[in-house]
């Protein structure tokens, strides 16, 4: 029984996991605290009068001003207010949106589904097409098909999501009206239908990044000692391929950070083009309206999601690469 | 990005015997890219002269479709000529990205060389700051900060210089650490040249290929970022023609004059593609020369 042996591989493995996780979590918490402080300071750094900013377009009667000062504890010292805000934020209370006159949490909750669905759909589309194309490109390196796929990736990488979204909208919603041009749809199936064009616009960029990473990773592996050795051992071409693809997986997974950054920017732009009610369009509208409570909440939420995914990527690195695992074990 | 999309790392070797077959195809794309960038570049330099005619309004000629006499791409709702507007927009489309890429690369050459050559505490401090900045998505920070402060064009450009810097620092640092143990550096150390002189007169020139290639690719990324921001209504000065804003305004007029948004959208895609293609090929050429 491995559990009875204190020095067994498994128990050491789990200790390493816990330690790595703890270090990562601590680092991420520090960054999140820093970001929360900066987003909170935004309210005070924003140009114009603070009370006016918080009032929005409500009438500025003395009572309303007194109520705002009371509601936001404006008479407390800055740091106390920050801690109050952070404590409320941790319990999911980000205050009331100035523009929507609705609690920020409700505004986010009603839109987050669309954004998650859009990002997932785009990611699945991109991965399903780009990873096989990247592998194929690497296998046929320098030939016509490789050049064609790679040129396609360059196009996807070069086209800003909003320009691509506009072109898709014009062709597939105006010239050939197959897909709806605007909005989020009523029932789940209708929503999915509304998400197709935005997801394609977003997937182009993700796919381009994925194709390039995959191609480079597989090419590097095909020239590695491991593959040469596998061939010299007389393994079948299928087995050789499996060895190459497994090691190529590591740089592909590490590329997730790059893709995530792209998705954050991409959803904002694509949702705005298609007037899709999601977090991205919410952020854009709130920024232009200077609806600070919403901007703070969305920024913090995105930062937290990025942090969690970054940790997950680091951990999968540990799971995928035996070399990293041994290094961590022998530390 | 270790390999170009058109040719992999192995082609450097396979090219020697008879790899010239693919040459005409690549040259055609490169020539087209250079031609496009030359035209757009000239338009960008001339764009201040076009500002006045491009923003001339005439209500009588509003919303003409493409192909109207005197207005090959039609007019917008204020009667401004779309062709002139698009040409006048080349200025803000190119000037900002070139400044962003150059500025961030300059900062990166100074800081990345320091980190890579001196190592120790300098390296740790610069590395930590770079790590933190890299964990922030550029678009999100740019939208929130520039949007809340209502920043104008050049303030937004300045902010993007800072946001683009971390990845450049990493690249330059990697290049410099790779050069540092080479014999020529040792020789310079033995001549007891100053560290500044060794870094910036001896090591940096050897990292030039890396710097130039990434400068090109940065211009492309900056063009995409800046035009996406102006499309969202952030970082555009009122009254100046701008592709991103033109596309945003054109959405309401898509049925009357689709050219208003399709032309700048296509131009952004083509110009970025040309820049990326040339950047990739430049990198490939310089790497091949470095190998031999």
Could you characterize what this model shows?
The mean pLDDT of chain A is 83. Chain A is 78% helix and 0% strand. In chain A, helix 8 crosses helix 10 and helix 12 runs antiparallel to helix 13 (292-320). Chain A is built from 14 helices and no strands. Chain A is mostly helical and 331 residues long. Chain B has 292 residues and is an all-alpha fold. Chain B has a domain at 85-288: MetI-like fold (Orthogonal Bundle), CATH 1.10.3720. In chain B, 74% of the residues lie in helices and 0% in strands. Chain B contains 10 helices and no strands.
Secondary-structure map with pairings?
The complex is a heterodimer of chains A (331) and B (292).
Chain A: H1 9-45, H2 50-55, H3 62-71, H4 78-90, H5 104-139, H6 144-158, H7 161-175, H8 188-222, H9 225-232, H10 237-254, H11 256-273, H12 279-289, H13 292-320, H14 322-329
Chain B: H1 11-18, H2 23-54, H3 82-118, H4 120-134, H5 138-149, H6 153-179, H7 183-190, H8 195-231, H9 243-250, H10 259-291
Name the helicity range of chain B: over 70%
Radius of gyration of chain A (CA) equals 25 Å
**SSE-based structural type of chain A:** mainly alpha
Number of helices of chain B: 10
- What is the makeup of the main sheet of chain A? none
Q: Summarize model confidence as the mean pLDDT of chain B.
A: 82
Write down the CATH class of one domain in chain B: Mainly Alpha
Spatial shape of chain A = flat
- Strand fraction of chain B: under 5%
Poorly predicted tracts of residues of chain B: 1-24
Number of helices of chain A: 14
Give the CATH H-level superfamily of one domain in chain B: MetI-like
The interface involving the most residues is between: A-B, 58 and 56 residues
Percent range for helical residues of chain A? over 70%
